[in-house]
């Protein structure tokens, strides 16, 4: 038998606006931005002479007209103004990145970091390895294009010895 009181009591209630709280954990709150995930991502492939590039980088979010393919990306001018600092490997949307902003389809995200490296021996090579990028990248080293990559969540490398 249909109980009309129970039916009316189960009617959807109006939702009240609530402030969203950031989802943090004790590990996120204890994060040291200068020492983020310092371990090698593939312990079996770790070398004695590698530099982990996780940590604080400068970033810039710049507008771009129309769609961007990897060739267009490689021809973009490196920004002269930087918006602030981002903690890598976190995406700009993630609270732990320190940015807290979504990059729109009409924008490009640039990263910049200066590092000092010791001189290589004649038989050594310098490889810049990425575990992944979110879809498309053009990598510049000392203002010169080192290479491009398209495809999210795939590892890739550039030899930047010279």
Structure description:
- The protein has a three-stranded antiparallel sheet, with no helix packed on it. The protein has a two-stranded antiparallel ribbon with strand order 4-7.
- β5 (about 135-140) and β6 form a beta hairpin.
- The protein has one domain: Sandwich (Jelly Rolls).
- The protein has helices at about 5-10, 25-30, 70-75, and strands at about 55-65, 85-90, 105-110, 125-130, 135-140, 145-150, 155-160.
- The protein contains three helices and seven strands.
- With about 160 residues, it is mainly β.
Instruction: Please tell me how large the radius of gyration is.
Output: 22 Å
How large is the share of residues in beta strands? 25-35%
Which fold name corresponds to the CATH topology? Jelly Rolls
Top CATH class: Mainly Beta
Structural class per helix/strand content?
mainly beta
- Main β-sheet, spatial strand arrangement: 2-1-3
Count of separate structural domains: 1
CATH architecture name? Sandwich
Shape: elongated
Instruction: Report the sheet with the most strands, covering strand number, pairing sense and barrel closure.
Output: 3 strands, antiparallel
Q: Helices, strands, pairings?
A:
Layout: H1 4-9, H2 26-29, E1 55-63, H3 70-74, E2 84-88, E3 107-112, E4 127-130, E5 136-141, E6 144-150, E7 156-159
Antiparallel strand pairs: 1-2, 1-3, 4-7, 5-6
């Amino acid at each position: 038998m249909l109980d009309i009181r129970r039916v009316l009591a189960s009617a959807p209630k109006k939702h009240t606006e609530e402030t969203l709280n950031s989802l943090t954990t004790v590990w996120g709150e204890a994060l040291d931005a200068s020492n983020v995930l310092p371990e090698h991502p593939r312990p079996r492939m770790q070398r004695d002479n590698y530099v982990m590039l996780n940590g604080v980088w400068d970033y810039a979010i710049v507008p771009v007209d129309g769609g961007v393919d990897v060739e267009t990306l490689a021809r973009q001018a490196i920004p002269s103004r930087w918006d602030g600092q981002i903690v890598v490997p976190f995406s700009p949307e993630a609270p732990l990145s320190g940015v807290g902003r979504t990059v729109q389809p009409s924008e490009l995200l640039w990263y910049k970091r200066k590092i000092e490296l010791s001189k290589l021996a004649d038989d050594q090579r310098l490889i810049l390895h990425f575990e992944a990028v979110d879809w498309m990248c053009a990598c510049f080293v000392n203002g010169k294009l080192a290479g491009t990559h398209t495809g999210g969540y795939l590892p890739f490398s550039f030899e930047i010895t010279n």
